[in-house]
Amino acid sequence: MGRDRYRTLMAVLIVTLGAVIAAAVLFFPRGGPAELPDPLEGVFPLPGDVVVRQTGIEIDLPVGYQLLDLIVDGVAVDLAEVSFTEATGDWRWYPGAGRTIEEWTAGDHQASIRWDRIAGGNPDPGGFVWTFRIT
Q: What single DSSP character describes residue 104?
């Protein structure tokens, strides 16, 4: 094998390794499972997730709790845009034409929510803030 061929092969292998490492950093979530405060049962995307632009925000609260605020990148989302399934306590919001945010831009985004219990006991206010990435 000639010296030039060897150098070319090594350069290709190094560039390929660099591309694999870059892809792993960009496209795979960081850290372990998210620690969510009680009574929050789930959010999507999870903190640190990397998701596509068609993704919406989903919040899972126990039945009897109400979402008070959804703030995305510092902008308060009109709660009339958030769909709610009363039987399961699921709240869902998607950006779209004519909505508070019309489309996601690539990069990191911050979501912030506040909730409170509206039925079945004493008030139980709380909140959660997390960041995710859109590709």
A: P
- Cis peptide preceding 39, ω within 30 of 0: yes
CA distances from 57 to 8, 69, 71, 91, 119 (A): 47, 13, 11, 8, 24
DSSP string, 112-135: EEEEEE-SSSS---EEEEEEEEE-
Tokens of 89: 């306590």
Measured between alpha carbons, how far is 30 from 112 in angstroms, rounded to an integer? Answer: 19
18, 46, 98 from 109: Cα distances, Å: 26, 12, 20
Strands 126-134 and 107-117: antiparallel
Confidence class for position 85, pLDDT limits 50, 70, 90: very high
CATH topology (fold) of 42-134: Immunoglobulin-like (2.60.40)
Is the link from the previous residue into 45 a cis peptide, with omega within 30 of 0? yes
pTM: 0.74
